[in-house]
Amino acid sequence: MKCFSFALLFIAVNALAAFSPDGAKEKPALIQDGAPAQAYIKRAIYEYLDKPPYLSIRAATPFFAKRVDGKDAWISLIEFYCGPSEQLKVHCLTVLVFDPLTGDHEFMTPEQLLEAAGKVLV
Predict the structure, then answer these.
(1) How far apart are CA 36 and CA 31, in angstroms?
(2) What is the largest CA-CA distance in the chain?
(3) Cα–Cα distance between 95 and 2 in angstroms, integer?
(4) How confident is the model at residue 70 (pLDDT cuts 50, 70, 90)?
């Protein structure tokens, strides 16, 4: 069921990507597809969760351009497990929103992203 919901959300987020800003700038080196993006995602989640003893990234979409809350951003949908141990892990789903102007990021729930993207579909 979790994979099914992840797949549906992935399809919805990709559909929203069609509304990404025209002439989106080149993807910053920090979040380029492959190893740089994987390292950035893992480090961001690890620090955000205050260095959990167990963290396993199951899947992450490549970052893609999107207009969120009226600003150009790069987003990635991430499915992961975390907790005090592998036996006591919790399944999680989040969206990492990277601001290319400031180099900062924030986390949103998938629902928050859909709400923010729904405000300005450009």
Answers:
(1) 6
(2) 46
(3) 16
(4) confident
pLDDT band at 4 (very low <50, low <70, confident <90, very high): very low
Positive/negative CA dihedral, 87, 111, 78, 68: negative
Q: Is residue 103 packed enough to be buried (19+ CB in 10 Å), middle (13-18) or exposed (0-12)? A: exposed
Q: Radius of gyration over alpha carbons of the chain, in Å?
A: 14
Secondary-structure breakdown of the chain: helix, strand, coil percentages, each rounded to the nearest 5: 35, 30, 35
28 CB-near residues (< 8 Å, 6+ apart): 74, 98, 100, 103
Split at pLDDT 50, 70, 90, the class of 26 is: confident
Residue owning tokens 């992450």: 60
pLDDT digits (tens, 9 = 90+) for 78-122: 999 999 999 999 999 999 999 999 999 999 998 888 888 775 444
Q: What is the pTM of this model?
A: 0.77
Q: Which amino acid is at 34?
A: G
Residue with tokens 């729930």: 109
